[in-house]
């Protein structure tokens, strides 16, 4: 982080006088400056508090940061304090459709952020019961899908991607001019030929896609942290869709927001989950485990060396400090080997990633998902495939290893 970025981050342009907001911003600017100082980066200590908070009427300018050499604009909580969320959504009723992990996490966070939220889910389904357990009251802030769509002005479609398609004829009837349609995944809109989800031309259509499960969206928010999310605008009828997407991204509990498009969000999301977030990692785990087992290592040794050491020791450190730090802070033996073997693994997997990206880009992956997931025997076929993973020696060994963790005794 260089000094000019630090200054850019904390010094704002003149805007409307909002004393408490400004005070909070000044405080967070100072806190950030102090934190940067503690982190050992070039300091802002030479910026006197008066420079940071010269007048009570300052607000922060658009924040552009350097991500490894590329400048990107980001938004954070400091950009949308509660008062500003009220200014933007004070007259709105946020209808959250679905109460799966995302519906639950996002709705509870918005409610805690002071917005008027109602839930729409199918009556007496699993989600309905869960919502009641969480204190949502039928007839007050919990309704069947159709009624919730009628009452809401911002329709947040957090049904499963498949259900977004099947319920579209119902939901779309209530998308009257002036309303906002929101998604957390670009899937339904981007693959409209297959999903038939085609928003009417006279509503704003926006997206905020948290980069993680809805459980984490809620848990991090409760811990005072926040999950990073992407935001996008598909249709801007009001002229305010950009700001509403940014504000809503913060209202649902995000940490920082970065800009994308519906297409790019779907592409990166599908590549990520098929790649290093799940598909590739399970493939790599399995390949290494199989080789170790075939060469006579016990399941305990193969599992610890393949999964447990990573998830319990190395990955949390990589999350905290980065892989670059890990490379500089392991044994010289590990360092030599990891440097030498990085390239063969990279070269072997890159063509697979290229192929994966192309399959996502040309829509084959989406078509395959829709086709497979809407088949009549979908559940039975899926159970068979999942059972193969559940019953594999590697993950059975993993259950035993986890049961031996002292905290699980
Ligand atoms: N999971 C993630 O990590 C993640 C991350 C970012 C974005 N997203 C996106 O967020 C959205 C929601 O995802 P999610 O994981 O929270 O939910 P999900 O588990 O995929 O969907 C759950 C909701 O859909 C409802 N539903 C399913 N079939 C239905 C049908 N035929 N009719 C009416 N309702 C139906 C369920 O109600 P019942 O309980 O009644 O079945 C439940 O409320 C999706 O667009 C997803 O792509 C997910």
TrEMBL record:
GO MF term set: ketol-acid reductoisomerase activity; metal ion binding
Subcellular localization(s) per the UniProt record: Mitochondrion
Pathway assigned to this chain's UniProt record: Amino-acid biosynthesis; L-isoleucine biosynthesis; L-isoleucine from 2-oxobutanoate: step 2/4; Amino-acid biosynthesis; L-valine biosynthesis; L-valine from pyruvate: step 2/4
Residues annotated to bind Mg(2+) 1: 269, 273
Protein EC: 1.1.1.86
Matches recorded under Pfam families: KARI_C, KARI_N
InterPro entries: 6-PGluconate_DH-like_C_sf (IPR008927), 6PGD_dom2 (IPR013328), KARI (IPR013023), KARI_C (IPR000506), KARI_N (IPR013116), NAD(P)-bd_dom_sf (IPR036291)
Transit peptide keyword on record: yes
Cellular component aspect of the GO annotation: mitochondrial matrix
Keyword terms of this UniProt record: Amino-acid biosynthesis, Branched-chain amino acid biosynthesis, Magnesium, Metal-binding, Mitochondrion, NADP, Oxidoreductase, Transit peptide
Binding site residues for Mg(2+) 2: 269, 305, 309
Ranges of residues in domain KARI C-terminal knotted: 261-408
Domain KARI N-terminal Rossmann: 70-260
Cofactor(s) this protein cannot do without: Mg(2+)
GO BP terms, alphabetized: isoleucine biosynthetic process; L-valine biosynthetic process
UniProt KW Transit peptide keyword: yes
Sites where the protein binds substrate: 331
Family of this protein: Belongs to the ketol-acid reductoisomerase family.
Name of the protein in its database record: ketol-acid reductoisomerase (NADP(+))
UniProt organism field: Dispira parvispora
Lineage of the species this protein comes from: Eukaryota, Fungi, Fungi incertae sedis, Zoopagomycota, Kickxellomycotina
Gene transcribed to yield this protein: ILV5
């Amino acid at each position: 982080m260089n000094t000019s970025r630090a200054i850019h981050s904390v010094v704002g342009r003149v805007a409307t006088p909002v004393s408490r907001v400004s005070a909070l911003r000044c405080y967070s600017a100072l806190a950030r400056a102090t934190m940067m100082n503690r982190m050992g980066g070039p300091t802002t200590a030479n910026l006197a508090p008066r420079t940071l908070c010269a007048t009570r009427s300052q607000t922060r300018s658009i924040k552009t940061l350097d991500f490894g050499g590329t400048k990107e604009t980001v938004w954070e909580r400091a950009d949308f304090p509660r008062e500003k969320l009220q200014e933007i959504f004070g007259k709105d009723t946020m209808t959250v459709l679905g109460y799966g992990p995302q519906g639950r996490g996002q709705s509870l966070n918005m409610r805690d952020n002071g917005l008027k939220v109602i839930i729409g889910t199918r009556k007496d389904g699993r989600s309905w019961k869960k919502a009641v357990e969480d204190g949502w009251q039928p007839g007050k802030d919990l309704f069947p899908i159709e009624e919730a769509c009628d009452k809401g002005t911002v329709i947040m479609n957090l049904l499963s991607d498949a259900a977004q398609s099947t319920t579209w004829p119902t939901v779309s009837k209530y998308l009257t001019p002036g309303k906002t349609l929101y998604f957390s995944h670009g899937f339904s809109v981007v693959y409209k030929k297959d999903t038939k989800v085609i928003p009417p031309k006279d509503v704003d259509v926006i997206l905020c896609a948290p980069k993680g499960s809805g459980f984490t969206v809620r848990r991090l928010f409760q811990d005072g942290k926040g999950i990073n999310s992407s935001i996008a605008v598909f249709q801007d009828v009001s002229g305010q869709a950009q700001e509403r997407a940014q504000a809503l991204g913060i209202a649902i509990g995000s940490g920082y927001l970065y800009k994308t498009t519906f297409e790019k969000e779907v592409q990166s999301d599908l590549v990520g989950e098929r790649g290093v977030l799940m598909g590739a990692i399970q493939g790599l785990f399995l390949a290494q485990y199989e080789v170790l087992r075939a060469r006579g290592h016990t399941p305990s040794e193969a599992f610890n060396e393949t999964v447990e050491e990573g998830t319990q020791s190395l990955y949390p450190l990589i999350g905290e400090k980065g892989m670059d730090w890990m490379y500089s802070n392991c044994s010289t033996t590990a360092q030599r080997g990891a440097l030498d073997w990085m390239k063969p693994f990279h070269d072997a997997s890159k063509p697979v990633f290229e192929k994966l990206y192309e399959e996502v880009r040309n829509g084959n992956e989406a078509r395959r998902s829709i086709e497979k997931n809407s088949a009549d025997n979908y559940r039975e076929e899926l159970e068979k495939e999942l059972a193969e993973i559940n019953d594999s020696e590697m993950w059975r060994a993993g259950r035993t290893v986890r049961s031996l963790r002292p905290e699980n005794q």
